[in-house]
Amino acid sequence: MTTLLPVDDIDAFVSTRNALHRIAEHIVAKARYVDDGEIRLTAFAGGFSTPLLGDGSRIRVDGDVLVVDEPTGSRRTSLTTIGEAAAFVGIEAGFPSELYPPATTFEPADPLAVDRSAAETLAAWYALTAEVLEQFAREIADAHPSPLILWPEHFDQAFYTEDAEEARRANYGASAGDEGHPEPYMYVGPWGASLANAYWNATSFNGAVLSLSQLVTVDNPTEVALQFLRTGRALLSGATSRHE
Fold this sequence. Notes:
- By secondary structure, this protein is α+β, with helices and mostly antiparallel strands.
- The protein has helices at about 10-35, 80-90, 115-140, 210-215, 220-244; strands spanning about 40-45, 45-50, 60, 65-70, 75-80, 150, 155-160, 170-175, 185-190, 210.
- It is built from 5 helices and 10 strands.
- The strands form 2 sheets. Strands 1-2-3-4-5 form a 5-stranded antiparallel beta sheet.
């Protein structure tokens, strides 16, 4: 069972998250795009990763280290700049902008501010919330949940439902944090309007959030997180019944 870690220094965490977001877009997603034309990533031990690529390799981040796993072994290097990371992997840096503009700036020579402790906090967050989201997706199999994906442009992992009733459809996910909410948070984002309820507490989007700080001190964060998702699902089910 994954143990959550607190955000001890919010400034160091935000700087680290922003640096790793740049790595996710301009290096890790780009490596996958070169291989198979896809950019979807996944949570992985120590951080995040491509799936296994066509040559049997995997490009991943482990804390403050970039790792290239190959059939013959692994190579590791510290995260210093986007340019040096690209040279280590053997790709041309830069998010494939033919898909859409990247969410982060592309500055290959700028130093990456990655704090090891903050990176470990983010890795633990991704690991536990991946477990939670996968379990919840199994619970609501009748809603036809999409695969769980770590999206490089949003730097969050999420799935959505494909309910027959539009009012029940929602995104269920875990964000590394953003300008509207600096610390990591889980969320439920309805596709349509949500009925008035204190549960829908998000201030920067239509939905509900459950912060890392609300989970890190409880005895069973997995169960609390699952209950948060279940509550959102139940409220959306209630919204459907009221529209019928």
